[in-house]
């Protein structure tokens, strides 16, 4: 039986998620693994926005911030259970993306980049400056969602990092599955059409403005969920997660791995999350190496790592 | 009243620096369609290398010249090794290449010149001047005068010299410029050198007021990028207007509303302007080719 590209992607993803823990010598590795998953969730959203629809956002960390702070603030101020706060945060991010997206998605290329950047900067700034609500630059505590306790009562005992590794992995898997389904759906085809040429897509009957807005809202929800999961597992959230550098990191992860492919985005997230952990050995040379990697990959493998590798393999097979 | 004058004076000083950074963005964008996010690092290098030169015992003008020359060379290297090989890549890739370059430059600076924060001595003393109740540092006048001089010189260069016109021709239509015998490769190299030199000079001028360290580039790049966008990417007039407007808005917000939100208001106004003028204040509005 030949597997479709979608099935093989999901299979590879599941296999990696399940097999990796057998090689984990300590809980620390589960922790890093779950960070990879959290970043990958946000990056899958960027893959939809940038890879499918060809739109640039340099402000998506703003939505990560909204999702994260929703988990910190809603349970305390409105008495919402933290797990529900994840959903409410996602709804809020989607609504904000809808409101912001309508005007800014009319812009193209670098103009869209600066407008989205402005949005991200504004969110980060509000989070840092409204100390009475958000705890200011030092961040704010996030309540325990109690999910691990729930599992324990069912007889499944996991350490905290193990639990978050499994939970974030599951969310990522579902997110990747949805994104892959979207790819071949009418909405996904419309997005890919307008990526190629907006005029051509419009001629073929695609409502370009609506399709772009769809992609923007969907990717904002991914970013928001990632932010919520980060906040819940760290039990703390700081305004940095909404900052410009985090937005750049997310876009870089997507593009480095291959923005056109979900697996590429996830691989990019893994690479850029693990790289700093490895590079701490290099200490002062960390930035130099990171900058070099970004430049070299983009110059020599402009399609990103995974699509380039796939092309190489296919070329050999023929 | 004297408050207002004070805010205006500091707004113009900062705005002049933003205008110079925005001008650097504009020159490179015109020559190559690339928005160079490493532009802020040129400003940082200008400041940091002059500081190192002065610390090594060189007189300030010599140190500044060396800083400008070295930064120009780095600008040319950036074009040769990172931008030229990636010609034709999508916008996202180019953004990541230049951000990668800026992280790289920051990393190297941190290793070679250290992590400290430094300040250059003022060019003509620290005795403030009193103008209608507002105090103005002499260095502010240097910054403003320097920016004016650079804009005038560039205007003359682009309108009165053959090389300058070749640059303009290339930015209008690269292929047509090539067909009439313009060496567009040289134009790109020149643009990167020029843009880096302007950035470095801005760095030298501002470092007596704003202390520099290896990290200052990124926020300058963001402000300069925003200023260039506000004016309309590709227009030197837009860079000047955008830079000054941004500087004034920041100063007035910091003075009258809250210094915490001065950066926020800048970006807020930029969003508002882009809603009304999707290609910036002076941006052209080309029809899309199918």
From TrEMBL, chain A:
<dbReference type="GO" id="GO:0015658">
    <property type="term" value="F:branched-chain amino acid transmembrane transporter activity"/>
</dbReference>
<dbReference type="Pfam" id="PF02653">
    <property type="entry name" value="BPD_transp_2"/>
</dbReference>
<dbReference type="InterPro" id="IPR043428">
    <property type="entry name" value="LivM-like"/>
</dbReference>
<feature type="transmembrane region" description="Helical">
    <location>
        <begin position="30"/>
        <end position="49"/>
    </location>
</feature>
<feature type="transmembrane region" description="Helical">
    <location>
        <begin position="7"/>
        <end position="24"/>
    </location>
</feature>
<feature type="transmembrane region" description="Helical">
    <location>
        <begin position="110"/>
        <end position="128"/>
    </location>
</feature>
<feature type="transmembrane region" description="Helical">
    <location>
        <begin position="287"/>
        <end position="306"/>
    </location>
</feature>
<protein>
    <submittedName>
        <fullName>Branched-chain amino acid ABC transporter permease</fullName>
    </submittedName>
</protein>
<keyword id="KW-1003">Cell membrane</keyword>
<keyword id="KW-0812">Transmembrane</keyword>
<feature type="transmembrane region" description="Helical">
    <location>
        <begin position="82"/>
        <end position="101"/>
    </location>
</feature>
<feature type="transmembrane region" description="Helical">
    <location>
        <begin position="163"/>
        <end position="182"/>
    </location>
</feature>
<keyword id="KW-1133">Transmembrane helix</keyword>
<dbReference type="GO" id="GO:0005886">
    <property type="term" value="C:plasma membrane"/>
</dbReference>
<dbReference type="InterPro" id="IPR001851">
    <property type="entry name" value="ABC_transp_permease"/>
</dbReference>
<feature type="transmembrane region" description="Helical">
    <location>
        <begin position="250"/>
        <end position="275"/>
    </location>
</feature>
<keyword id="KW-0472">Membrane</keyword>
From TrEMBL, chain B:
<keyword id="KW-0812">Transmembrane</keyword>
<feature type="transmembrane region" description="Helical">
    <location>
        <begin position="7"/>
        <end position="29"/>
    </location>
</feature>
<comment type="similarity">
    <text>Belongs to the binding-protein-dependent transport system permease family. LivHM subfamily.</text>
</comment>
<dbReference type="InterPro" id="IPR001851">
    <property type="entry name" value="ABC_transp_permease"/>
</dbReference>
<dbReference type="GO" id="GO:0005886">
    <property type="term" value="C:plasma membrane"/>
</dbReference>
<feature type="transmembrane region" description="Helical">
    <location>
        <begin position="140"/>
        <end position="158"/>
    </location>
</feature>
<dbReference type="GO" id="GO:0022857">
    <property type="term" value="F:transmembrane transporter activity"/>
</dbReference>
<keyword id="KW-0029">Amino-acid transport</keyword>
<keyword id="KW-0813">Transport</keyword>
<keyword id="KW-1003">Cell membrane</keyword>
<feature type="transmembrane region" description="Helical">
    <location>
        <begin position="240"/>
        <end position="258"/>
    </location>
</feature>
<feature type="transmembrane region" description="Helical">
    <location>
        <begin position="264"/>
        <end position="282"/>
    </location>
</feature>
<dbReference type="Pfam" id="PF02653">
    <property type="entry name" value="BPD_transp_2"/>
</dbReference>
<dbReference type="GO" id="GO:0006865">
    <property type="term" value="P:amino acid transport"/>
</dbReference>
<keyword id="KW-1133">Transmembrane helix</keyword>
<feature type="transmembrane region" description="Helical">
    <location>
        <begin position="49"/>
        <end position="79"/>
    </location>
</feature>
<keyword id="KW-0472">Membrane</keyword>
<protein>
    <submittedName>
        <fullName>Branched-chain amino acid ABC transporter permease</fullName>
    </submittedName>
</protein>
<feature type="transmembrane region" description="Helical">
    <location>
        <begin position="91"/>
        <end position="113"/>
    </location>
</feature>
<feature type="transmembrane region" description="Helical">
    <location>
        <begin position="186"/>
        <end position="210"/>
    </location>
</feature>
<dbReference type="InterPro" id="IPR052157">
    <property type="entry name" value="BCAA_transport_permease"/>
</dbReference>
